[in-house]
Amino acid sequence: MKMDRISFLPNSILCNILSYLPTEEAVSTSILSSRWRQVCKELQVFDIDDTPFRSGLEWEARFVSYVNAILTQRNADYPIQKFRLTCNKVSKSLLLTWLNAVIGPHLQELYLNIDLPIKLPEAILTCPSLKSLILKRDSFLDSYPKFSNVYLPSLKNLELDIVYMDPSKLLSGCPVLENFKLILQVHDNSCVALIPTMQQMPRTLKSLIIEDNTFFNGVSHRLILIDTPSLEYLHIKVMTLLNSKLEFSFSNFINIVEAHLDLLHDCIYHVGWVPHLLHALRETKLLALKGYSTLCLFSAPAFEFPEFHRLLNLELDVPCFSTNFLLNFLHNSHVLEALVIHDISKEKYFHLVEYDVPAPPTMVPNCVTSHLKSFEFRGYEDSVDKREFIAYLLQRGLALEIVTIHLNYVFNQETKYDIVRELSAIPRASTTRQLNFIDQNAVEHG
Questions:
Q1: d(CA 153, CA 24)
Q2: CA pair distance 362, 376, nearest whole angstrom
């Protein structure tokens, strides 16, 4: 005889199981029996999304009735701990009614992805138990007359992906914040003033992600101060027009583990701070420089590589291939184990910049002879300097185990065959090495 073992579990365990499902699926279990209807009323975790309702006539009304039923029929003795809401069309008054029903002293996580500019209830900004706050798209925070009242003593995770706000007004009231993600989306001149000319990150941060997607006409100059000695993860992505100048100031990140820098526009406006960032990151274990980032180092006057004593993984986009640049980097990365080079010279338009610095030392970098285990070259286009660099690693990499070459999709099959044959014929320091070739065109087209 088959037994329904799940229904014999305590309500607390059943609620915990249902909390991992979208609320629509969790509530659908109420049709099983009166026991399950009671369980649904005791749910403390909600993930509400209007996407499944977006079909048929009057879907908005059906969605509103669905949310109203959930919030009014639930057992008030079981306070809401986590609440996620994703919706596009709903009135401001109704949305505020839902939020006021959710906010309480036991609320720990709040996620709002709403296509509606609203003034958030002030109780959200003083919730004592709130640990995670994620605001997507349009949420007006500048409508409050007194932001000095903001105090979130338990907040450790904050994500702001919104247009009309000054993030400092929230950060000042988060004394234990550890994870912060800020996505700037200003595309309107009238909103530029809402972003402060100087922004300081909390010193308590362990993870920081900044993505600047601002587009507008006119001149803007902003400075972001990152004096965060406990920082372990950093990701900066900048995509701005040329007349929008964004600069950073850094302390030394003595605890940094992983760092990503992605510059999607001309490097001339970032040359000043990118070299300083690289020196501040000298203790990192993983470093990824994307887009124009390496060109900022090419253009920096009197640039000197820092000593990377802990760097294990290095990923470089190279819009302008320079063997001297790469070898100088390797000489200063003493224990590097994995190197990834991505040739993007044909993917985007880049101003060609010559790497005009002293040649690297004649001896082989220590990491190449003792530590480097894997090397990957993406977007490979055959040329003398690139072929010589690959040969350099193959012939001197005593610890090298795997080499992977992604052949650029522009080559025909005959050319690809010639490249594979020539690279495979290069003498290697060890016969145990694995040399792989990947057809990039075949991968992109399945």
A1: 32
A2: 23
CA distances for 373 relative to 56, 258, 323, 331, 338, angstroms:
57, 19, 19, 16, 6
What's the distance, Cα to Cα, between the start and end of the chain in Å?
48
Buried b / exposed e across 107-142, counting CB within 10 Å, b at 16+?
bbbbbbbbebebebeeebbebebbbbbbbbbbbbbe
Q: Report the helix count and the strand count for the chain, using DSSP H and E.
A: 13, 18
Q: Which residues of the chain fall short of a pLDDT of 50?
A: 1, 142-146, 193, 444-446
Quote the CA–CA distance of 150 and 152 in Å, as a whole number: 7
Q: Where are the beta strands (DSSP E) in 201-242?
A: 207-212, 220-226, 233-238
Q: Is 21 left (phi over 0), alpha (psi -120 to 50) or beta?
A: beta
The two most distant CA atoms of the chain are separated, in Å, by: 81
Q: What is the pLDDT of residue 304?
A: 86
Determine the Cα–Cα distance for residues 336 and 312; give it in Å rounded to an integer.
4
Contact 158, 173 (CB under 8 A): no
- Global pTM? 0.87
pLDDT tens digits, 48-63: 999 888 887 888 888 9
